Amino acid sequence: MVGAARQLLQFGTDVEVLDPPEVRAVLAETAARITDLYSGDDPGDSLAGEPEPR
Description:
Helix content is 48%, strand content 0%. The two termini are 22 Å apart. It is an all-alpha fold.
């Protein structure tokens, strides 16, 4: 289901997932993480203390 959620992300706000709730939850979590990433004043601030991507 994560793969389906990732594919749906390309549509941004042009799509709303109503079902299944697991995909909706993945999209909500991803949106929250994106918001956190871009809501800081300085680029890179939200990445402090997080491990490097593999």
